[in-house]
Structure formats: structure tokens, C-alpha cells
Design goal:
By secondary structure, the chain is mainly alpha-helical. Helix content is 82%, strand content 0%. It folds into two domains: 56 residues; 91 residues, no CATH class.
Length: 186
């Protein structure tokens, strides 16, 4: 496989997932900015959304190729498999968010034990869990879509969502062809 082919494959596989997460994280951060604006607090988080989307996109693509990520794909209904992945990814998200807060506390204090104390004293669990819930909903939508797309056949759901509805004449011919095709297969 040539370098250009690998790059193209990587951009296709990770790029679309990353764009999805960038869109969702952008909405979440816009809502956060709007809520904070009512208290006259300015926030700028575009860079955070871009970096988070890049990380989430790559991690999701990697985890979807591991045993942990595909554990229930074939043995359980799509909703159960998507729920499992969502809960697993949300747990990781909570750990990463706690780690992020610990890192910031460590930068301020310079000592790991003091950073833990600082984080515990000034903890804002509600903010962490609110972020985890928003990110979890983003993961749930992604996993449901990916699971349904995989079950229907890769790309069929995408084409169904973005194609025009057939006209009534095309629909009646298409329905007759499908019915005839089903009868032939029996």
C-alpha cells in the first residue's frame, strides 16, 4: 500500500468521524458559551473543540477495531451493542476529564499530592459529569448510526439519509420490483 493510499484511507476513515465529533462538540461548546453569557462570563473554546474532536475521532476508530469495541456487535442487538460502547466510552471520558482537572491542578501547585488535595477541595463534579453526559450522548448517536449502517450494509444508511425520495411513479415501480425480487428469492 503506497503512502498516498494510506493517507487517503486514513483521511476517509478518521476524517468523517472527526468532523462528526467537531460538529457535536461545537454545538456543546456553543451552548456552554450561551449559558455563560447570561452570567456575563466570556469563554473561548474553539481550540478545545478541535483538539477534542481529533482525539475522539482517532480513539473511536481505534477502539472500533479492538475486541473491547466489537465485543457485542454480532451477538447482541444494535441498541445493546451501542449502549455498551457508549457506557464504556463515557467511563473513559470521565477518567480523562478528571485527569485533565488533575493536570491543571498539578500545573498550578507543582506537586502531585497538593494537586490531588486542590482538586478534591475545589472539585466541580457537576461540570465534569455534565460534560461527560454531553459527550456520552454524542457517542450514543455515533454508535447507533454506525451499528445500523453496519447491519444494513456499509453506506446504505448514508445514501438513504442524503438521497431524494423517489417520485410516486418510481416508488410504485420500485415496490413492484422489490416484491417480485422477494418472491423469486423464496
Amino acid at each position: 500500500m503506497s503512502l498516498m493510499t494510506r493517507i487517503t484511507h486514513e483521511l476517509k476513515e478518521v476524517g468523517l468521524v472527526t468532523l462528526y465529533f467537531l460538529f457535536c462538540f461545537g454545538i456543546i461548546l456553543t451552548l456552554k458559551k450561551l449559558f455563560l453569557a447570561s452570567y456575563e462570563i466570556k469563554s473561548y473554546a474553539l481550540g478545545s473543540a478541535v483538539i477534542s474532536a481529533l482525539i475522539a475521532g482517532k480513539i473511536v476508530v481505534i477502539l472500533d477495531k479492538t475486541r473491547a469495541g466489537t465485543r457485542f456487535d454480532r451477538s447482541q442487538p444494535t441498541g445493546i451493542a451501542a449502549g455498551y460502547k457508549t457506557l464504556m466510552y463515557m467511563a473513559v471520558t470521565v477518567l480523562v476529564l478528571f485527569g485533565e482537572h488533575l493536570f491543571h491542578a498539578y500545573r498550578e501547585t507543582g506537586a502531585f499530592s497538593r494537586a490531588i488535595e486542590e482538586m478534591w477541595e475545589n472539585r466541580n463534579r457537576n461540570a465534569i459529569f455534565a460534560k461527560a453526559l454531553c459527550v456520552g450522548l454524542t457517542f450514543a448517536a455515533y454508535h447507533l448510526y454506525a451499528g445500523v449502517d453496519r447491519r444494513l450494509g456499509k453506506g446504505i444508511l448514508w445514501r438513504a439519509l442524503w438521497s431524494r425520495a423517489p417520485s410516486s411513479q418510481e416508488d410504485s415501480h420500485g415496490s413492484a420490483e422489490v416484491t417480485h425480487e422477494r418472491a423469486r428469492s423464496r
